[in-house]
Design brief:
The complex is a heterodimer of chains A (133) and B (528). Chain A has 133 residues and is α+β, with helices and mostly antiparallel strands. Chain A is built from four helices and seven strands, in the order βββααββαβαβ. Chain A has two domains: 2-53, N-terminal domain of TfIIb; 63-128, no CATH class.
Chain lengths: 133, 528
């Protein structure tokens, strides 16, 4: 078994916790003893964080809408179609017709890249996230 | 937060406003209760008798939406009792006379009556706070989710400056940030009016800097806020959206408008780890890696930037959001190539002064660093505003009472507040997938006072219909005196009882924050 020290994904406290990894899957968590916030303590959500990681309902393949249904597609199809659709809107209506929502659940690096993508490739400042909710 | 979380346990007086801390920020609550064990005084301002309120020395159960009159009354008491910190006001602030004149014109009795809190209790709270050597104010969305949210926050700042309770260790004003990385997402410029590190889009110099660094021209006009985008309507100005890891179909106010807007788009792409209510409306859904399957950093409420480390490989064909964004960007004619999240952070450090010394190798060898961290040798900043405020002098912003956008009336006689509970998180995308958390709580409950329950002939656990002018849902009654008569409370975690069908779309014009804490509803017994 391997333990990986990381940061909890729930609230703004930002506890340091270890994820236990067995057979390539996260099977449990434990607080870091010396982390300045968690100090050997987690809330009930932190203790059960592994359950959503391994859940059978996780999305595992890209999906594209065909009529009423979302059906599995390849990455190439999903990326090409998305780029083509967003590009079409950008060409015909301008970047101001595109909206981008970033995520308070994603990393700093991902949020940085997403707002950079919005402002350069999509030519829009319509980028926000759930800070107000 | 101007302080670090650990400083809270050294404060002599802790004033908590609009925060259900034991449930929403367990580690912060732990510091508060540890401080109480050591002799600190705890003052809780909350319409509900929360667990923290039960542990407090003074509970100021104000009428929802009357934060400004309550704090103004406290400040008037500070003035009358000679507890204003004159030296601090002289040296560090401006516009004090405007505040003093406004406070001196207040009729204290009338102001207290508006809040529903007895004047002697307000006076006692003000004196406790004013006389302390070290005092912190912690506040959360109970303060900001009002039409006057910005003024509420400014009034809190007025109180702290008037008492001189800022600039010192263990003393300050601490907004508790909700999500794990809501602070970071703001810092990174995922905001319509700000480039990374709060460099305003409207400022030509900042735009020039980023245009040079990114080799692209940037749009000049600030963009739309989240709710301006999700409430645009069927033929709104937004034709296409890309949504990364958010679920506005449960989290935003007046869901019927959100649904109409999202269904009316020409194109919607969503990347998420589960097929959320929002993803179900998309044309394309990307399967994303979750936090355990990638590396990077999160910034917590105390501005601590810390490492997220990959523990396992993503399941199936999942990819990280960084990979997805880079692929899309290249296809749209703007190539972005980074070998690692560490390389992205190098660029962030270069362009964002407050992250100037944040490098993965430094973060990796420590418990993270608190911004501002100006360069590689800077140790980070545990508490803010030590010698000066960011803007120079602290500016007093006097405010007066603004009533909520919708108050109870004959047709909808109850006041609804919404919030969180301990076992679940936000729209439940992750926590509702946990068997053990669901075992603790798996359905929405409506807290209602015994008096109102009796008037409606309700029994504990009985299903009731809750309706507002905008929609209705069914949920179970939980009869408790945690809420006063005339008020009800529930959460927004449960897709089976989406409370945001009912919430009002009144906003704070300053911040764009919806008024989740007040709207008018009625309860109906289900016909059997």
């Amino acid at each position: 078994m391997q333990d990986v020290l990381t940061t909890c994904v729930y609230c703004g406290c930002g506890c340091g916790l270890y994820l236990h990894v067995e057979d390539g899957q996260v099977c449990g968590s434990q607080p870091s003893r010396h982390h300045p916030v968690s100090r050997d303590n987690l809330c009930v959500k932190g203790w059960h964080i592994h359950e959503s990681i391994n859940h059978p309902d996780r999305l595992t393949t890209p999906l594209i809408r065909k009529g009423d249904a979302l059906v599995p597609a390849t990455w190439g199809e999903a990326l090409d179609f998305t780029a083509q659709q967003l590009g079409h809107i950008r060409e015909n209506h301008g970047g101001k017709a595109i909206g981008v929502l970033a995520s308070a659940k994603c990393t700093n690096e991902e949020n940085y890249l997403l707002q950079k993508f919005a402002r350069t490739a999509l030519a829009t400042n319509n980028v926000d996230h759930c800070a107000r909710l | 937060m101007t302080n670090s979380i650990n400083e809270i346990e050294n404060a002599e007086v802790i004033l908590v406003s609009g925060s259900n801390t034991t449930e929403a920020h367990p580690q912060v609550a732990r510091r508060m209760l540890d401080a109480v064990d050591r002799g600190a005084r705890l003052i809780v301002i909350d319409p509900r008798r929360t667990r923290l309120a039960e542990c407090s020395h003074l509970h100021l159960a104000l009428r929802p939406g009357t934060d400004i009159p309550l704090l103004n009354a406290m400040m008037r008491v500070l003035l009358d009792e000679g507890l204003a910190d004159e030296l601090f006001i002289e040296m560090r602030t401006e516009n004090f006379l405007a505040l003093r004149d406004m406070l001196n014109r207040l009729d204290l009795e009338e102001t207290a009556a508006l809040t529903g809190v007895p004047l002697p209790l307000i006076s006692q709270a003000a004196q406790l706070y004013g006389r302390a050597r070290k005092a912190v104010i912690c506040y959360c969305l109970g303060v900001t989710q009002h039409v006057c949210g910005t003024e509420n926050v400014q009034t809190i700042a007025n109180l702290a400056m008037l008492a001189g309770h800022i600039e010192k260790e263990d003393t300050g004003v601490d907004p508790l940030r909700g999500q794990n990385n809501v602070q970071g997402a703001c810092d990174m410029g995922a905001l319509p009016n700000m480039l990374p590190s709060y460099q305003a889009v409207a400022n030509q110099d900042y735009r020039d800097k980023f245009e040079r660094a990114w080799g692209a021209s940037l749009p000049e006009a600030p963009g739309k806020t989240l709710v301006e985008m999700t409430h645009g309507g069927k033929q709104g100005p937004i034709r296409g959206m890309y949504i990364m890891g958010e679920n506005p179909m449960l989290s935003d106010p007046t869901l019927s408008k959100v649904e109409e807007t999202l269904r009316g788009l020409d194109f919607l792409a969503v990347s998420d780890i589960f097929l959320t209510e929002t993803a179900q409306l998309a044309q394309v859904v990307f399967p994303a890696a979750c936090f355990a399957e990638k590396s990077g950093s999160f910034t917590n409420s105390e501005r601590r930037v810390q490492m997220v480390r990959q523990a396992v490989a993503p399941p199936g064909e999942c990819r990280t959001d960084s990979e997805i964004i880079m692929e899309l960007s290249s296809r749209l004619g703007y190539a972005m190539e980074y070998d690692s999240s560490a390389e992205v952070m190098e660029e962030i450090a270069l362009l964002s002064p407050i992250y100037g010394g944040m490098h993965h190798d430094r973060l990796d060898q420590s418990w993270g660093l608190q911004w501002p961290c100006w360069d590689r040798s800077h140790p980070g900043t545990p508490f803010l505003h030590k010698y000066y405020f960011t803007r120079g002098r602290g500016h007093f912003m006097p405010a007066s009472h603004t009533p909520p956008g919708e108050l109870p009336d004959a047709e909808y006689p109850l006041l609804l507040m919404t919030g969180r509970i301990y076992h679940h998180y936000h729209t439940g995308t992750m926590t509702r997938k946990s068997e053990r958390l669901n075992r603790e709580c798996n359905h929405a409950v409506l807290q209602i006072n015994p008096e109102d329950a009796k008037a409606h002939g309700l029994r504990q656990g009985e299903s009731v219909q809750l309706a507002s002018r905008r929609g209705q849902i069914t949920l179970a009654a939980s009869i408790t005196d945690q809420v006063e008569p005339g008020m009800v409370y529930t959460t927004f975690h449960f897709h089976e009882a989406p409370i945001n069908r009912l919430t009002n779309d009144a906003f704070d014009t300053g911040s764009g924050c919806p008024e989740y804490k007040v709207c008018a509803v009625r309860v109906e017994k289900m016909s059997s």
